[in-house]
Amino acid sequence: MSLSRDEVLKIAGLARLALSEEEVARFSDQLSAVLDYVARLDELDLRGIEPSVHAVARTNVMRDDVVMPSLSPTDALFNAAATSENQFLIQSILEE
Amino acid sequence: MDIISLTLTELREALRRGETTSVAATQAMLDRIVALDNSLLSYLTITEEMALEQATAADQRRAAGEDTPLLGVPIALKDIICLSGAPTTAGSKILEGFNPPYNAFVVDRLLEAGAVILGKTNTDEFAMGSSTENSAYVTTRNPWDIERVPGGSSGGSAAAVAAGLAYGALGTDTGGSVRQPASFCGVVGIRPTYGRVSRWGVVAFASSLDQVGSFGRTAADVAAQLSVIAGHDPRDSTSLNIPVPDYEAALTGDIRGLRIGVPREYFVEGIEPDVEAAVRVAIDDLAALGAEIVEISLPHTQYGLPVYYLIASAEASANLARYDGTRFGPRAKGADMIDTVRQTRALFGPEVKRRIMLGAYALSAGYYDEYYGRALKVRTLIKEDFRRVFESVDVIAAPTSPATAFRVGERIDDPLNMYLADIFTLPLNLSASCGLSVPCGLDRQGLPIGLQLIGDTLQEARILNVAHTYEQARPRDRRLPAVPAGATG
User: Fold this and answer.
1) SS3 sequence, B415-474?
2) What pLDDT is attached to residue B434?
3) What is the pLDDT of residues B408-451, one digit of tens each?
4) pLDDT band with cut points at 50, 70 and 90 for residue B199
């Protein structure tokens, strides 16, 4: 299994990663090798096997709908690159 | 009394008897960090001021007649565990400057127990790695040979405990990141059952596999810390609401009649001869102590690595979507919002990018069933292997890693070869088992070898007792490895 340059760029787009040309070439080789390696799972007959998403079977855990202690706006915003009026500030997304 | 040479539990006794103080022990650690950590690079942040305040408070509490499980004991935290008042980087440039406004559940537990926090230890970026070479900041060195890696990802915690730069430490284990560095550095490290310890306040890597564990020089030291950090936390929905046993009280030194299984799939081509020989001798020792040794089979072991990399990468690609420069971390300046996010995320290191890419691919339309879906089904087979074996044995004994510590730089450009360091640790993470690594000798180069003991769901007390009983029968040289002072290039 070999990943093409276009496929690497498509995945990088899905993952929102800006890659250098050098990274595109290197990841194409390295990810192809990893995909070849994981292809050994194809040896197994998995008909009738249920998937496991967790180590320990769990059902949804509910709690009472009451206000619990939480971060103050100052603490919640403290690590942000830009804030305005107690909110996270980002570039505009919609065109004017 | 040489305060440096005491184990955690010995220090606790010395404190209880009034033979020393927490301030003395804390200052001894801080002095030793200044003297030796230029060579080892095990700490990313040293919380000296906080530690001395906590130590002073601990001594005052003791003078007032108080006693708590870790009162005055200096401990280190892997820098993926949030501590309010100090930076948390997860070994990544994308969290540079991040100061968590809260403590992780395990940190609150340690502080309630009276522990002193010495600082934050180095880790592979987002705990992805087996050597700390993926840390964006430094590569920690192995105290037994500073040309070699300490293992990873919790390599900073393992090296700090091995070198006497902390009496104990916490790490996280997603695929072996406590047990493998414990093995490489010659200390004890436990990975509890998934759900035994809360993940709240721990930077997420792969949420169905991550678990916090403890390092110590002895099984008793590990047990003392686990007794404090284990337990239910309503803020982590996967936290188990099941009573926590007294792990130290379980260290009876008696394993007569215990059935110990030795899986044939863990003694395969590629294992270093010295590792195999030392582990086999240790298993003979367990037999001499009265355990019954049984050969067993975990037939899907060889599929653990591919399953692990698909599942862990898929979960990581989702978890790491939050690093977009909006709420925390540095922000790049792009042409528009999407471009800003893409440029900000270029701050991830190569291994993190590789795993995000692999995960995004495995989850993407057209490939989901072939990769992620298939991996989840094989995970069922691996869980079933363990479940079936634990119907007939009490504990599994095996090597922790097929090799001892490798040289810095030796595997960094070959991801698959790097991943092989974890082939004997990661199947456990896919199952509902728990495991630990305990030192069982040195190879011909003088590097530590680890014996891995695996227990069934919530059987931490049992595997700790096997490790403790083994330690009593085969006492290790108590001398700490001789770490050369001076800067590492």
Assistant:
1) HHHHHHHHCCCHHHHHCCCEEEEEEEEECCCCCEEEEEEEECCCCHHHHHHHHHHHHHHC
2) 98
3) 999 988 888 888 889 999 999 999 999 999 999 999 999 999 99
4) very high
Whether A38 sits inside 8 A of B371 (CB atoms) is: yes
**Alpha helices, DSSP H only, in chain A?**
5-14, 21-38, 73-77
Mean pLDDT across chain A: 91
Which residues from A are below 8 Å from B429, CB to CB?
55
Cα dihedral sign, B315-B89-B200-B43: positive
pTM of model > 0.90: yes
Looking at CA atoms only, how far is residue A6 from chain B in angstroms? 13
Q: Which residues of B touch A27 (CB under 8 A)?
A: 353-354, 357
Residue-by-residue DSSP string for B230-243 = BS--TTSTT---SP
Residues of B annotated catalytic, as ranges? 78, 153, 177
Question: Mean pLDDT of successive 10-residue segments in chain A (96 residues)?
Answer: 90 96 94 93 96 83 89 95 95 82
Please list, in sequence order, all residues whose beta carbon lies within 8 angstroms of the beta carbon of residue B154, skipping any fewer than 6 positions away: B78, B121, B123, B127, B169, B171, B172, B173, B177, B178, B181, B189, B215
Strands (E), B326-384: none
User: In B, which residues are within 8 Å of A52 by CB distance?
Assistant: 376-377, 379-380, 383, 430
Q: What is the ipTM of this complex?
A: 0.95
A79 to chain B, closest Cα gap in Å:
5
- Return d(Cα B436, Cα B167) in angstroms, integer: 18
Structural domains present in chain A: 5-43 (1.10.20.60)
Neighbours of B477 (CB within 10 A): 8
| B377, B384, B456, B458: best to mutate for the A interface, most A CBs within 10 A | B377
Give the strand pairing for B188-191 and B448-455. unpaired
The pLDDT of residue A52 is 94
What pLDDT is attached to residue B448?
A: 98
CATH architecture of B3-259: Alpha-Beta Complex (3.90)
**Per-residue confidence band for B327, with pLDDT thresholds at 50, 70 and 90:** very high
- Rounded to the nearest integer, the mean pLDDT of chain B is 96
- Closest residue to B326, CB basis, from A3, A26, A90: A90
A33 at B interface, C-beta within 8 A: yes
Phi-psi region of B435 (alpha: psi -120 to 50; beta: other; left: phi over 0): beta
pLDDT at A96: 66
Q: Which of B357, B358, B428, B456 to mutate to test the interface with A (most CBs of A within 10 A)?
A: B357
Q: What would the mean pLDDT of B379-405 be, rounded to a whole number?
A: 98
Q: Dig out the tokens for B132 from the structure.
A: 């700390």
- Closest CB to A78: pick one of B101, B379, B383: B101
Tokens encoding B282: 């240790």
Q: pLDDT value at position B1?
A: 72
The answer to whether residue A79 neighbours chain B at the CB level (below 8 Å) is yes
Break chain B into its structural domains and give their ranges: 3-259
Written as one letter, the residue type at B337 is: M
Q: Is residue B178 within 8 Å of residue B83, measured between CB atoms? A: no
